[in-house]
Amino acid sequence: MQMMTKRGLQWLSATAEDPQDCRAAWTDDPRNPYALPAGRYFDVVVIEQRIGLETFSQLDRRAMPLGPVMADWGGKRTGFFLPSGSRERFDRMVGEETADPPKYRYAGEGSYVIVPGPMPLSGDRYTWLRAPMRRPEATPARTAALAAMFVAAASVVARADRYGEQYSRTPAAQMWDEPEPDQGEPRVR
Questions:
Q1: 40 pLDDT higher than 60
Q2: How buried is residue 171: exposed, middle or buried, by Cβ count under 10 Å (0-12/13-18/19+)?
Q3: pLDDT tens-digit profile of 10-33?
């Protein structure tokens, strides 16, 4: 979990329909989530939480291009910020990675997203996995990296699920469920 910088707060609040109201709300309570319109300064790709967390982890560990990323723990979703107008490119790139794309929701123009406040605490419903530090660069590399890692992460999660279903009751796993053989009473000398 991260907190926004002052420059990140200025950029993100500028996207609000009333930037002064947004900044005032965050001044009153910096943990307060706020609904912002997508499509003008940013778009958001919304992914199921397990796949989203794996996607974030892979992008972060490999130091790939990555913009702000938020988590909605109550809704079990992860949101990745992309440059506005990236929908066609993202859809195309996901389609190039796989014939059977995993599910996602794209929030662009006409959509609203609830973003975490600048200083959420652990345990809050909305938090930043990677908070805005400044206005993110509008580079196609972020879109390409997200598309590739999203498809790869979905594959990893699906394989882990299949493995768990197939091998959840192996003899090794059952060994832990079986009671210890009766050793009898301890002998007293």
A1: yes
A2: exposed
A3: 999 999 999 999 999 999 999 999
Rounded to two decimals, what is the model's pTM? 0.84
pLDDT tens digits, residue range 61-105?
A: 999 999 999 999 999 999 999 999 999 999 999 999 999 999 999
Nearest Cα neighbor of 65 from 155, 4, 130, 152 is: 130
Closest CA to 110 of 77, 87, 136: 87
Whether 95 contacts 35, CB under 8 Å:
no
For residue 94 the two structure tokens come to 């996901």
The predicted pLDDT at position 171 comes to 57
Three-state SS letters, the chain: CECCCHHHHHHHHHCCCCHHHHHHHHHHCCCCCEEEECCCCCEEEEEEHHHHHHHHHHHHHCCCCCCCEEEECCCCEEEEEECCCCHHHHHHHHHHHCCCCCCCEEECCCCEEEECCCCCCCCCCEEEEECCCCCCCCCHHHHHHHHHHHHHHHHHHHHHHHHHHHHCCCHHHHHHHCCCCCCCCCCCC
